[in-house]
Design goal:
The chain has 314 residues and is α/β, with parallel strands linked by helices. It contains 9 helices and 13 strands. The strands form 4 sheets. A 7-stranded parallel sheet has the order 3-2-1-4-5-6-11, with helices on both faces. The protein has a two-stranded parallel ribbon with strand order 7-10. The protein has a two-stranded parallel sheet with strand order 8-13. Helix 1 links the parallel strand 1 and strand 2. Helix 2 crosses helix 3, helix 3 packs parallel to helix 4 and helix 7 packs across helix 9. The model has no long low-confidence stretch (mean pLDDT 95).
Length: 314
Amino acid sequence: MAEKVFITGASGFIGANLMRRLLADGFEVTAAIRPGSKNFWRLEDVTDQIRILRLDLTDQKDTAEKLGQIGPNYIFHLAAYGAYPGQIDSEQMWRTNLFAAINLIEAAKVVGFQKMIIAGSSSEYGKKSEAMKESDRLEPSTIYGVSKAASTLYCQYRAREEKLPLAILRPFSVYGPWEEPGRLAPRLIGRALKNEPLELVGSKTVRDFIYIDDVVEACLKSMNEDKINGQIMNICSGMQTEIGEMAEQVVSITGSKSRVQRGSYEARSFDTDIWVGNPEKTKKLLGWQARVALKEGIRQTVEWYKSHKHYYEH
């Protein structure tokens, strides 16, 4: 009998990729979707292979009842709000990023589970002067980062105090197939394929880019590793890249005539010339490290994008 996996945020970027890998590996997957959500474009080709469950995670009773119906072996809590430019409702950030996690842990304790993986965010760190470690003081520079930091600390506290099989993965700048249309990589690829200018913020803005397949692999490795219980782990490459370099890679791989225009936009509050994670703790505890180099990740993303243009060009 197939083991059961319950995913919140399954219609999102990371969730959609993880879900496909779990299906390929023979798991029975339940995708939790917000009531009223019409964000199904990432699920269209797999709806006949998964169970879709309408669930309001901010409703404790609804969460308890529906999780009890599923009885999952594994839980991936990937639902989040506030990471994208249009998501600016601070109250919704607290409801989705903190209170939903509280409700889910309470419900899961009653049902029982083998492992729960919570998705944190590198936004919890704020600006640092060197590679970010899990032991660093958290100084988030956005309300989204504050809400995610609160969730991470709460979940870690519960895991340690109650010996729960729960761990927190803290992804850095994830890119790849099924990414949100307005994000950097798909925007650059879409414009490059049309030979349009690639407009960016200043030349000093950097990110620690991590390909989605590496993130999914970290999730899978986390499912049966007891050493990570109660731990926070960076999911990062350990290398920072100036965003203009990513744009130049896109131009090269697509053969585009686009010009990279740094400084077209003013820097945002969270833009910085140092944004890189230290992956050593994750390597030690999980035996995981990023495998896909940026050039190869962009190449794979470009090839995927070409056959899925209809999702991005409206």
